[in-house]
Amino acid sequence: MARIVFDLDGTLIHSAPDIRTIANSILRDEGLHLITLDETIDFIGNGASVFVAKMRAAREIPDVEHDRILGVFQDRYETVLELTAPYPNVREALAHLTVAGHRLGLCTNKPMRATRAVLSHLSLTDPLDVIYGGDSLAQRKPDPAPLLAAFADLGDGPCLYVGDSEVDAETADRAGVPFLLFTEGYRKTPAADLPHLATFSDFAELPKLVQAQLEVLA
Ligand SMILES: O=C(O)COP(=O)(O)O
Ligand SMILES: [Mg+2]
């Protein structure tokens, strides 16, 4: 049986519309132009502070405002959840993998409080035995530390990391862990240019893909 760790934003859930709502509520308060969904997706991947830094840069909000804006962003991050949904077949895939005896975990750059809030809102917490957020450790992805900590907490067995982005591919590479790339998330680079073991576009494919890759890795 394997240890399988998932990324969150752009992998298990499509959260960009809610993140855009939060960003635009701040920009509206500041009297600035709102951001599009594409801009939002462009800013996601390295955690809340980098998101806010990129949003500020795009709308010329000075650096001295960073902590104030990040504070507002973090407060709203836990409460704006209505537009977020799991990608198709995520629930079924997690259930299937659990029944097959695999141990599942999460390693995201989203802050822990917002991570717990959205997982609970979508009833996705139960299948996950371990959860690392962007502020769980001093390091965050692409530093391999949180991913390695998640695998260590899950015990023994082969490891697989499942994610959607450049950050995830680099994290897996640096951790020395095989990477499965979900192609429908927030990646900007062609899949062929990122290190990965295999790609998939529908979570309905994942249980069979995991089985096949574990046989290759054995
Ligand atoms: O919060 C982010 O910027 C990205 O989150 P993720 O690591 O779940 O993709
Ligand atoms: Mg992601």
Automatic annotation (TrEMBL):
Catalytic activity, as annotated: 2-phosphoglycolate + H2O = glycolate + phosphate
Pathway(s) per entry: Organic acid metabolism; glycolate biosynthesis; glycolate from 2-phosphoglycolate: step 1/1
Matching InterPro entries: HAD-like_hydrolase_sf, HAD-like_sf, HAD-SF_hydro_IA, HAD_2, HAD_sf, PGP-like_dom2, PGPase_prok
Enzyme Commission identifier(s): 3.1.3.18
GO molecular function: metal ion binding; phosphoglycolate phosphatase activity
Residues annotated as signal peptide: none
Cofactor(s) listed in the protein's UniProt record: Mg(2+)
GO BP, one annotated term: DNA repair
Superkingdom of origin organism: Bacteria
Enzyme class: hydrolase
Recorded GO CC terms: cytosol
Coiled-coil residues: none
Keywords: Carbohydrate metabolism, Hydrolase, Magnesium, Metal-binding
Family recorded in the similarity comment: Belongs to the HAD-like hydrolase superfamily. CbbY/CbbZ/Gph/YieH family.
NCBIfam families: HAD-SF-IA-v1, PGP_bact
Protein name, per record: phosphoglycolate phosphatase
Organism for this UniProt entry: Thalassovita mangrovi
Taxonomic placement: Bacteria, Pseudomonadati, Pseudomonadota, Alphaproteobacteria, Rhodobacterales
